[in-house]
């Protein structure tokens, strides 16, 4: 959503989507909270309009930094899943750039180098699948994972819009994103979390037990954080239960 050139007491909010998504996935949330913030919804490297951009961690940090520098103060950074990984990566390297951080279905990374190597191998295999199967067939498979399957509960119109966004991806772009910015290729950020002294809102879905645990771990590591659990929602709570997530983010922006 475009930002007004005039000074505003509302914060600028940069929202970073998950793997295989797009900036447009945040439109329902941005429309519900249009009075609370000026929303900016880019496509991350490897996705839709940014499909040809480099996807490695340093490139993603640079991508977020480019957007950050165009935003007026105060600024809030929001990330969901892969986007939360990008948000944490930028915030830990540029901790003074943001006056608030919202992390939906986030984790600080994989601690074990052996586990990261195993994840890199898996993501390389999945990237090859994308190139072999094509975007539509791969995403049909991808969306049947237990972690992702709860997205079937997203309201019909919003779900249809999401699928339309996914048709804009290229196989090469998604493969690059998965292989170069998957969890195995990103650093474990836990040692850097103490740098994040700004207010942080951690959000997880009630039915997403794995990421509820990750959020509780982050809660203990971030010095100025809260954790809010969204009822009747899984890994994508901001669309699976839009009203409840809207209330949480509204309160965070108002009280940060």
What is this structure, in a nutshell?
This protein is of the alpha/beta class and 256 residues long. It has helices spanning 27-32, 57-69, 82-93, 113-133, 135-142, 146-149, 156-166, 171-181, 209-221, 237-240, 242-255; strands at 12-16, 38-40, 75-80, 100-104, 200-205, 225-230.
Describe this structure as you would to a colleague:
By secondary structure, the chain is an alpha/beta fold. 46% of the residues lie in helices and 12% in strands. It has helices at 27-32, 57-69, 82-93, 113-133, 135-142, 146-149, 156-166, 171-181, 209-221, 237-240, 242-255, and strands spanning 12-16, 38-40, 75-80, 100-104, 200-205, 225-230. A six-stranded parallel beta sheet has the order 2-1-3-4-5-6, with helices on both faces. The longest helix is centred in the middle third of the chain and has 21 residues, at 113-133. It is globular and about 50 Å long. 43% of the residues are buried. Residues 1-7 have low confidence and may be disordered.
Write the layout of secondary structure elements.
Blueprint: E1 12-16, H1 27-32, E2 38-40, H2 57-69, E3 75-80, H3 82-93, E4 100-104, H4 113-133, H5 135-142, H6 146-149, H7 156-166, H8 171-181, E5 200-205, H9 209-221, E6 225-230, H10 237-240, H11 242-255
Parallel strand pairs: 1-2, 1-3, 3-4, 4-5, 5-6
Helix pairs in contact: 2-3, 4-5, 4-8
């Amino acid at each position: 959503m475009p930002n007004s050139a005039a000074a505003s007491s509302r914060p600028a909010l940069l929202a970073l989507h998950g793997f295989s998504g797009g900036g447009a996935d945040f439109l329902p949330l941005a429309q519900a909270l249009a009075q609370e913030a000026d929303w900016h919804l880019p496509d991350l490297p490897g996705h839709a309009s940014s499909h040809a951009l480099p996807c490695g961690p340093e490139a993603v940090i640079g991508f977020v930094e480019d957007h950050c520098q165009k935003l007026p103060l105060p600024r809030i950074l929001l990330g969901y899943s892969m986007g939360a990984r990008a948000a944490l990566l930028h915030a830990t390297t540029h901790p003074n750039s943001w006056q608030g951080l919202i992390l939906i279905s986030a984790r600080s990374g994989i601690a074990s180098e052996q586990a990261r190597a195993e994840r890199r191998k898996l993501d390389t295999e999945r990237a090859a699948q994308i190139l072999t199967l094509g975007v539509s067939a791969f995403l049909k498979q991808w969306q049947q994972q237990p972690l992702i399957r709860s997205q079937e509960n997203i309201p019909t119109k919003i779900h249809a819009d999401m699928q339309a966004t996914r048709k804009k991806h290229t196989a090469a772009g998604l493969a690059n994103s998965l292989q170069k910015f998957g969890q195995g290729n990103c650093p474990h950020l836990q040692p850097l979390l103490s740098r994040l002294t700004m207010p942080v809102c951690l959000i997880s879905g009630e039915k997403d037990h794995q990421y509820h645990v990750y959020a509780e771990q982050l809660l203990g590591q971030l010095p100025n954080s809260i954790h809010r659990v969204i009822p009747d929602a899984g890994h994508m709570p901001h669309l699976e239960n839009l009203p409840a997530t809207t209330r949480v983010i509204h309160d965070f922006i108002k009280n940060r």
